Fold each of these.
Amino acid sequence: MAAESWPGREINELLPDNRRYFIDNDWYYVNQDIAREDLLLHARQIDHLLPFWFGITEEGGLNSEADRVAEMIAEQAGLPILAIIHNYSSREYGPLVHRVLTNEVIRRNLIRNIVSLVRMKQYLGVNIDFEFVPPRDRPNLTAFMRELYEALAPLGKQVTISVPAELEENPQHPFSGAFSYRDLGRYSDYLYVLAYDEHFAVPGPVASIGFVRRVMDFAETLVPVAKLKLGIPVYGYDWVPQGGFPLTLSFADAIETAQIHGATIIYDEEAQEPHFTYTADGVEHIVWFEDVRSFRVKLEEVLRRMWRGIGVWRLGQEDPRTWLLVDGRRQ
């Protein structure tokens, strides 16, 4: 793939008959000042905004954290919103989503509230982002997506879902077992395949290109590529070898940390991701993070395979040079 190939531009290497191939350049959004500033700068380079705004409740309601300023920026830029419906409104993520998915009355109430939301707000649609769904709820998650799709599709609204990375079909997997790619593909316009967090409990690449390719290989066996969008990270993690959860870093955080501690950043050619180590207060730290180079190789993989687009987690964390690569809006 030629290095100058950009999304939203003609890709002659992929389409010898000179047909134009576009991908969607979608970004996730969380309410933070830096994300709002980033949105103001780049709204016209984004195709869909996925804001983390609406948490489900035990009764099938929605807790709103909608950012009116962000809504106004998106509206002025003509940027469609796919509102995220999530289960982080409670610390009991798994039990909450289990109760909502398995109780038919609550599930239908949630769907009614989602329909009312997209109608009232005039959103393009929604993105379902349920995490820690118990594996035994696999059929219930599929039923929910079917019912939601049947309610929103006739209204011309998009139904999308973010799914965890999978390398094989394993319904018993504690984190991803509830997600049947094949079935969810039937009842969604698009699946955002979140090909990141390859390492979390132990240090390692956030999303090595080998891992990303294997995730994409598996997804393609179950879902048409026209329905697939690749979730791409733009953040990093800072681990200590003794264990515990890593500290999440933005690209700017990672660069500043390396500079403060005089660390040498090494770009791992096999993983296609930068990393470095440093010592603070006598404790060794290991950092892996994403930059424009690691972003490019993932983007080129999407273009080569002709997936429908990308979903980037998240605004405000990226290497600013990333915006030289993405220009997805069709003017």
Amino acid sequence: METERTSPQPAGKSPRQPLSRRRLLGGIGAAAALGATGVIPLANHVSAEPEVKASASTGPKRQWAMVIDLRKCEGCTTIDKAPQCVEACNAEHFVPPGQEWLQVFEVEGPGGHPHFLPRLCMQCENAPCTKVCPVGATYHNEEGIVLINHDRCIGCRMCMAACPYGVRRFNWGEPENPPGAALANYSPEYPLPHRKGTVEKCMLCAHRAKDGKIPACASGCPMFAISLADMTEDVATNGKDVFKFSRFLADNSAYRLKEDLGTKPRVWYIPGHGQEYGHHVDDNLIPKEPRSWQEQGMTLDKLEEKHKAEEHPQTEGAK
């Protein structure tokens, strides 16, 4: 029987706590108001007053982005698990097996040393996929997220050919859906049920962002390596800390994949090789194969329970 190992925690780091809508929006609002210049512990800047709320109907629209800190990403090898970001994405969206929207690769760094790199949809501002779709099925929503309307998608796969990042997937066969999915209220922001003959991809958990939650991959990352950013407010959070987004990018030499193509991706990377969790630059570790949602035993009921747990985390000592 495999013994589960807990993730090593560097000094000052605490175990992941689920992030509720109030905690996320309250933390972002506080950071923006204070003009944060560095990383701020989230718990220290959350108002207890219920009237302190963020309104989606006033002010400029949020513009979502992501930042992945490769200093923290070590493929979940130190806890002897498959990449938890991938498994969380699979479970959240009931992603068809072999069609992962998020993948973790071991790549060669500038000095020839390997490191892990999660790759998902880059949410490009100048997205080639939106330009070639003959029926307008792939588009930007008002918050900058690239979505696919499967009611329109004709499966021509021109968007797949145009995407320079290789992050789109095509359902050649009839994908398995969880029981009850046929009754789901389909939306491009949460595309369920999955359909044969259509293209799918990461949609930055647009449905979770609306509810004030970070994406499933960020929530599932035990190393706090993935953050959701609001470019309008210039703040970001990994579920534990809130920090000024632009300052964090500048201070840590952030980069984007294939910037020379002019796609203006909204996913930034902080250079690193998992060193904050003991991954040595010469390590050559291979992550475990992530489980599908079926292997995780995920159902719509269990997903709903998971969401409720995120909204109402247990307090310390609660049974």
